[in-house]
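Saturday, quiet lab. Running sequence design on the structure tokens for the scaffold JK sent over.
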């Protein structure tokens, strides 16, 4: 028997401002419908503005088409696109219907996408109208979307509808990140988790209704969802920066000026070419009042230079993981003091708490003593997709009261407390690193390299001394059958590019005769980096 509740019942919790992502982000459509929700580059080269009412109409048009496909709550939809109005509308249409969306990049390698499709088993694959992805499995429905609506090319296989509506605890999206097993790992977030985070961050007051917030992160990177939620959740305006303009410092700044952007969100590396080649133009942007960065360390010389060029702007250090969207947003002093050695990540956002636990499972309270960050928050992910073992390793019983049944997020990040109790991030407890704001498991790249028939052993390290930006460096031992120069760095890099995105490709590749080991038998990455020290 197929349960088909009335449309008004199924959409009730999605269209009210409650614990549904669509209701929360489009609440301003009911109060200030004519306010600008999104400003983007138009096809004719100018700017196009979408009001909250117009954006909601676009969302509801997509909802009508998706609803007609008969998909049940919980069935997954892959969305391939750069950040734009129609992509955002598709995501919110999926949220309305309880269809967890999985954002992917248009340039994602086919083999990596195949792994995600095999794991997530989506009902539908949607790509922006200019997408070129084809040869998708016959088990998944396909379609395209744009300003003119959503067109289904191949209808999805559906199951009988058994759900009457969307609940706050239902998954809203799955973000696939790098995984230790060599396969992408899916982080499942619920409506309630995301909205709880956004409500907590709103209390910090970093975004107001008159702001124009530029987002520079790709759609599949969870930081872009933070930007989107912070802007629309406050009734402000979201401004997606086109990828082809972000790559050129002066064009990037010209776009910010043209769109009257008041704050920019992004990874620190977006500012490096600007500081190097367009410093004067940046200093002239007196409308830029806030810069929020996250995802990687901001080298102090560059951070100081940014603060010098924008003396009236507030600089905010964002810290966190995909499993909680973020954990803290901390305003830094401007100017950056000469005595500052490491920017603080402060305290958790309102409604959450970060505590430190030592290797013996005891709380760390003394200043200067390193411990692993454990996060208590209503905004935690519900688990890793189809991976209960990894979920149990990350969502652990509360170390302070294991009998309570409460779970906290064991982040794997190390930090110490300052004199006022604020936290300072100081590295990872495992082999995970951040590359241009993307989380990368070194083990995934190592496994791919070792699949090359000419490679016997592979070790990856993040070289922080190679230049202004840390770079991935590979150390490879050739196999016996590939002695001499028969295996080249170019060949190995091309082999990796078949399955790995560009940010996971090693920048430097060195062939070595052996891999040195630490006293506990692990690869000694420090010793390897010392061999090629700059």
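Result came back. Writing it out in full:
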């Amino acid at each position: 028997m197929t349960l088909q509740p009335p449309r008004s019942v199924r959409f009730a919790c999605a269209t009210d401002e409650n614990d549904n992502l669509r209701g929360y982000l489009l609440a301003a459509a009911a109060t200030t419908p004519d306010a600008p929700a999104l400003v983007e580059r138009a096809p004719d080269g100018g700017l196009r503005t979408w009001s909250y009412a117009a954006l909601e109409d676009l969302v509801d048009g997509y909802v009508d088409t998706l609803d007609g496909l008969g998909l049940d709550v919980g069935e997954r939809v892959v969305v391939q696109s750069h950040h734009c109005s129609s992509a955002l509308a598709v995501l919110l249409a999926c949220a309305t219907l309880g269809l967890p969306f999985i954002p992917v990049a248009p340039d994602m390698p086919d083999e990596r996408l195949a792994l995600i499709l095999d794991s997530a088993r989506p009902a539908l694959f949607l790509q922006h109208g200019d997408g070129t992805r084809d040869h998708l499995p016959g088990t998944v429905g396909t379609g395209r979307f744009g300003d003119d609506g959503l067109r289904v090319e191949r209808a999805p296989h559906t199951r009988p509808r058994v759900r009457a509506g969307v609940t706050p605890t239902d998954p809203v999206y799955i973000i696939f990140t790098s995984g230790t097993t060599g396969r992408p790992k899916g982080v499942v977030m619920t409506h309630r988790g995301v909205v709880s985070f956004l409500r907590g961050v709103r209390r910090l007051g970093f975004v107001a209704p008159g702001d124009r917030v530029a987002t520079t992160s790709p759609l599949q990177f969870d930081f872009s969802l933070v930007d989107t939620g912070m802007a629309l959740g406050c009734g402000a305006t979201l401004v997606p920066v086109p990828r082809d303009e972000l790559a050129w410092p002066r064009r990037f700044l010209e776009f910010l000026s043209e769109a009257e952007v008041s704050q920019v969100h992004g990874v620190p590396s977006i500012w490096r070419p600007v500081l190097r080649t367009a410093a004067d133009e940046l200093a002239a942007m007196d409308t830029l009042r806030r810069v929020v960065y996250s995802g990687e360390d901001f080298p102090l010389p560059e951070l100081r230079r940014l603060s010098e060029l924008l003396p009236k702007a507030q600089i905010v250090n964002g810290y966190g993981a995909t499993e909680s969207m973020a954990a803290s947003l901390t305003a830094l002093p401007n100017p950056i003091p000469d005595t500052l050695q490491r920017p603080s990540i402060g305290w958790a956002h309102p409604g959450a708490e970060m505590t430190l636990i030592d290797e013996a499972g005891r709380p760390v309270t003394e200043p200067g003593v390193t411990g692993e960050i454990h996060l208590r928050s209503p905004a935690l992910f519900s688990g890793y997709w189809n991976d209960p073992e990894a979920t149990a390793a990350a969502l652990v019983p509360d170390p302070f009261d294991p009998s309570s049944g409460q779970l906290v997020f064991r982040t794997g990040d190390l930090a110490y407390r300052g004199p006022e109790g604020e936290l300072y991030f100081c590295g990872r407890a495992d082999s995970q690193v951040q590359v241009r704001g993307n989380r990368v498991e070194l083990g995934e790249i190592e496994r791919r390299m070792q699949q090359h028939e000419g490679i016997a052993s592979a070790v990856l390290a993040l070289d922080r001394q190679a230049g202004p930006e840390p770079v991935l460096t590979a150390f490879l031992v050739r196999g016996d059958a590939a002695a001499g120069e028969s295996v080249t760095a170019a060949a190995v890099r091309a082999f990796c590019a078949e399955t790995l995105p560009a940010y996971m490709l090693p920048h430097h590749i060195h062939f070595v005769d052996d891999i040195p080991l630490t006293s506990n038998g692990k690869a000694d990455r420090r010793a390897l980096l010392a061999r090629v020290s700059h």
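Notes for JK: The radius of gyration is 23 Å. The domain at 7-332 is CATH 3.40.50.12780 (Rossmann fold). Ask whether to fix the surface positions before the next round.
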